[in-house]
TrEMBL record:
Pfam families: CoaE (PF01121)
NCBIfam families: dephospho-CoA kinase
Gene: coaE
EC number of the protein: 2.7.1.24
Protein known as: Dephospho-CoA kinase
The reaction(s) this protein catalyses: 3'-dephospho-CoA + ATP = ADP + CoA + H(+)
Residues where ATP binds: A12, S13, G14, K15, S16, T17
Length: 204
């Protein structure tokens, strides 16, 4: 039987690092951000609907999505973010359901649904258990600025547009704090895997 972990947390909190650690121990990672980007590629339904709803001015000359321009709009205008979510959430949900079905058919031991909107997107019922990754607000802001090449104001707007960690924590089974090194985070995940009997003999 496939164990399904719902993994959430604020943007740039360390979810992807946790996913990479779990993947190194054999987990199948179903990454909501990766799926969203796939759906926003030229020819995909997500991009077609975005173009229809927001206009061609949010596309680059080659027909790809201008993520920076769209991000500046939706993360400063809640009504516009709601429009984008109305487009993307059902498409992402459908793709995640498909990926999860494939993982179960393949008898994968551990499947991880890695998505910031785990709670808002109604994924909790799909999960065996849920986990939130948290870090300090200062580290989160710096991580996001450096990773996405954003100004402080742009990064803070993206953080503010999401559910707070305080609210997320009410809905998850476990909270993992990511304020140290990657090695420290890895040890925490090994401890979690061990507690769920999800580790094989390959662990060192």
């Amino acid at each position: 039987m496939t164990y399904v972990l719902g993994l959430t947390g604020g943007i740039a909190s360390g979810k992807s690092t946790v996913s990479k650690i779990l993947a190194s121990y054999g987990a199948e990672i179903i990454d909501g951000d990766v799926i969203a980007r796939q759906l926003q590629q030229p020819g995909e339904e997500g991009l077609r609907q975005i173009e229809f709803q927001f206009g061609k001015e949010y596309l680059n000359a080659d027909g790809s999505l201008n993520r920076t321009k769209l991000g500046d709009l939706v993360f400063n205008e809640p009504a516009e973010l709601a429009k984008l979510n109305q487009i993307m959430r059902p498409l992402i949900h459908q793709r995640i359901i498909e990926r999860l079905k494939q993982a179960k058919e393949a008898k994968v031991k551990l499947a991880v649904i890695d998505i910031a909107l785990l709670i808002e997107g109604h994924y909790l019922d799909l999960c065996t258990s849920t986990m939130m990754i948290e870090t300090t607000s200062e580290k989160q802001l710096l991580n996001l600025m450096n990773r996405n090449h954003l100004s402080k104001e742009q990064a803070q707007a993206r953080i503010n547009a999401q559910m707070s960690n305080c609210e997320r924590a009410k809905h998850v089974d476990e909270v993992i704090t990511n304020n140290g090194s990657v090695e420290e985070l890895k040890l925490k995940m090994i401890k979690w895997l061990t507690s769920k009997h999800l580790l094989g003999s390959e662990v060192e």
